């Protein structure tokens, strides 16, 4: 299964690319984006200047960073050419690369001061440890990260009786015969993985209800969503880690 990991994931994300941005323009998605903006601000007490976006998709990370800061350089990478095709249509002058996040050889050490990977993109890497090492290598001293992963014991997964460390994941609201291989994490596993190279680690739960398509139709539930996620982070759909390089 692992051999086919990237090949499969390229195909899955390529297949959903044309519907991806249009699916996440509802009120619930806007609230999700607001939350990510707050976490980006939390991670970066000083303004970021050189950003690397892992699994940049159709350009949401670029859009969010641009709304906070007008003077920064941005580089997006993604394994899906189709996702990057949509990105390029929206932002023709922005630099993107088509390769997987576990191999960032293209970049010199200490090239970036902020690495982000939002809306669970990190969960789809073919190699978790290698990706963390690469992030650490390309990050400048005291550079920051904001990384989102799928939570292992989320309400969505419990309801679907899924408890393993890997999942055949389908993104919310887009029907497809395929799936993306993904890693899922608990808060303590995530902490253990990042702790050797990172400090000021904060891990928050996020979007307990949003993982279940049904609830995301009711933005009125947003505050309950935030409250439950804060109280029981592992039950949330995503875990978001922010930290700085040691
Ligand atoms: C859930 S989407 C998130 C896209 C974007 N970050 C956003 O928030 O809109 C996951 C993205 O990760 C990309 N991806 C999956 N596996 C990847 C890998 N190994 N390396 C880089 N990108 C990957 C997919 O092609 C897809 O664009």
Give a brief outline of the structure.
The chain is 36% helix and 24% strand. The protein has helices spanning 5-23, 27-43, 60-68, 81-90, 128-138, 155-159, 187-194, 222-231; strands at 50-54, 73-77, 95-97, 112-117, 139-151, 166-169, 180-185, 198-206, 238-245.
What's the average pLDDT? 94
CATH first level: Alpha Beta
User: What share of the residues lie within helices?
Assistant: 25-40%
Rg (C-alpha, Å): 17 Å
Question: What would you call the structural class?
Answer: alpha/beta
CATH 4th-level superfamily: Vaccinia Virus protein VP39
Q: What is the name of the CATH topology?
A: Rossmann fold
Order of helices and strands: HHEHEHEEHEHEEHEHE
Number of domains: 1
Relevant terms:
9 strands; binds S-adenosylmethionine; 24% strand; 36% helix; nine-stranded mixed sheet; 246 residues; 8 helices; Rossmann fold
Could you characterize the architecture of this molecule?
The chain is of the alpha/beta class. The protein has one domain (2-245): Vaccinia Virus protein VP39 (Rossmann fold). Helices cover 36% and strands 24% of the residues. It has helices spanning 5-23, 27-43, 60-68, 81-90, 128-138, 155-159, 187-194, 222-231; strands spanning 50-54, 73-77, 95-97, 112-117, 139-151, 166-169, 180-185, 198-206, 238-245. Strands 1, 2, 3, 4, 5, 6, 7, 8 and 9 form a 9-stranded mixed beta sheet that branches. α4 (81-90) links the parallel β2 (73-77) and β3. α1 (5-23) packs parallel to α4 (81-90). The longest helix is centred in the first third of the chain and has 19 residues, at 5-23. The model has no long low-confidence stretch (mean pLDDT 94). The structure holds S-adenosylmethionine.
């Amino acid at each position: 299964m692992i051999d086919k990991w990237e090949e499969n994931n390229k195909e899955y994300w390529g297949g959903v690319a044309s519907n991806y941005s249009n699916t996440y323009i509802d009120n619930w998605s806007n609230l999700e984006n607001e939350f990510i903006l707050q976490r980006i601000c939390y991670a970066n007490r000083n303004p970021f200047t050189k950003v690397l976006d892992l699994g940049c998709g159709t350009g949401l990370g670029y859009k969010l960073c641009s709304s906070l800061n007008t003077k920064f350089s941005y580089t997006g990478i993604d394994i899906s050419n189709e996702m990057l095709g949509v990105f390029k249509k929206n932002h023709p002058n922005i630099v993107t690369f088509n390769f997987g996040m576990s191999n960032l050889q293209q970049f010199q050490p200490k090239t970036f001061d902020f690495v982000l990977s939002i809306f669970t993109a990190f969960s789809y890497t073919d190699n978790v440890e290698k990706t963390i090492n690469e992030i650490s290598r390309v990050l400048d001293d005291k550079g920051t990260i904001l990384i989102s992963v799928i939570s292992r014991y989320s309400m969505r997964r419990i309801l679907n009786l899924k408890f393993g460390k890997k999942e055949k994941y389908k993104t919310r609201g887009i029907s497809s015969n395929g799936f993306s291989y993904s890693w899922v994490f608990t808060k303590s596993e995530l902490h253990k993985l990042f702790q050797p190279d990172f400090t000021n680690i904060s891990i928050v739960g996020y979007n307990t209800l949003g993982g279940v398509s049904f609830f995301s139709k009711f933005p009125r539930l947003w505050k309950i969503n935030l409250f439950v996620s804060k109280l029981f982070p592992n039950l949330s759909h995503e875990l978001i880690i922010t930290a700085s390089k040691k």
